[in-house]
């Protein structure tokens, strides 16, 4: 589904491949949902990630937490994005494959739009370092680096901040600087590192997490006390 959608929205600008950690063929209901959406299925095949061993991609996107864990270290990418979608076979509602495809479609449209609007490597080192000069912004970036994606309510808990406008103001500054990207789900906004952020800037952020873990130890403890990500997300989006 994701391969067909990204090829469609990318309009030939990107090479797109899909694979599974334990492929067992394409479910006919998947092909039916894609065809019903109006996209071709003739060249879609079931492939294993092992087929791409040794290759390097600009983006590696996993579509559930299980796949993120199983594919870690098996596929190489400059930007590794972990999305978490409920698989259609696990859904208990009507038309589960069509609904999963619609959710993927919305996320992929946002992803492509971010790529088209992004201006990689235009963030000056001075602006980048100034963005790290405030504890809230720095801790936010480190939390995002660890969690991959967080919403405002999670940051309020993690940072022990009572003022949502204050946290949102800092997030807006990081987004304006081009360091964070966001996506909207219902009335909530979720933030992640901008996938087009220069590699050296990402390395500065991740190196800070690795070399000074105590700096956000309490923040991560408060965040983890909220439960696992699906539970936290459900609470945020109620």
From TrEMBL:
Any one GO MF annotation of this record: DNA-binding transcription factor activity
Biological process annotations from GO: response to arsenic-containing substance
UniProt cross-references to InterPro entries, sorted A to Z: ArsR-like_HTH, HTH_ArsR_DNA-bd_dom, Ptyr_pPase, Ptyr_pPase_sf, WH-like_DNA-bd_sf, WH_DNA-bd_sf
Keyword Membrane: no
Protein origin, superkingdom: Bacteria
Residue stretches making up the HTH arsR-type domain: 117-212
UniProt keywords, alphabetically: Arsenical resistance
Protein name: Transcriptional regulator, ArsR family protein
Originating organism: Catenovulum agarivorans DS-2
């Amino acid at each position: 589904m994701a391969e067909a959608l990204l090829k469609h929205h990318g309009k030939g600008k990107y090479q797109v491949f899909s694979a599974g950690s334990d492929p067992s063929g394409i479910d006919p209901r998947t092909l039916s949902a894609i065809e019903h959406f109006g996209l071709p299925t003739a060249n879609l095949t079931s492939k294993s990630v092992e087929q791409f061993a040794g290759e390097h991609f600009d983006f590696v996107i996993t579509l559930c937490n299980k796949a993120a864990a199983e594919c870690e270290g098996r596929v190489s990418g400059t930007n590794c994005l972990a999305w978490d979608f409920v698989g259609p076979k696990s859904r208990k509602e009507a038309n589960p494959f069509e609904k999963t495809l619609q959710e993927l479609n919305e996320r992929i449209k946002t992803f492509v739009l971010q790529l088209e609007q992004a201006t990689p490597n235009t963030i000056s080192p001075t602006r980048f370092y100034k963005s790290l000069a405030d504890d809230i912004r720095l801790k936010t970036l480190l939390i995002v680096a660890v969690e991959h994606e967080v919403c405002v309510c999670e940051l309020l808990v993690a940072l022990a901040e009572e003022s949502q406008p204050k946290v949102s103001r800092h997030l807006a500054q990081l987004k304006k600087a081009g360091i964070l990207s966001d996506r909207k789900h219902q009335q909530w906004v979720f933030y992640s590192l901008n996938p087009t952020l220069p590699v050296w800037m990402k390395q500065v952020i991740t190196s800070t997490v690795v070399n000074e873990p105590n700096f956000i130890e309490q923040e991560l403890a408060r965040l983890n006390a909220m439960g696992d990500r699906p539970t936290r997300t459900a609470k945020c989006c109620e």
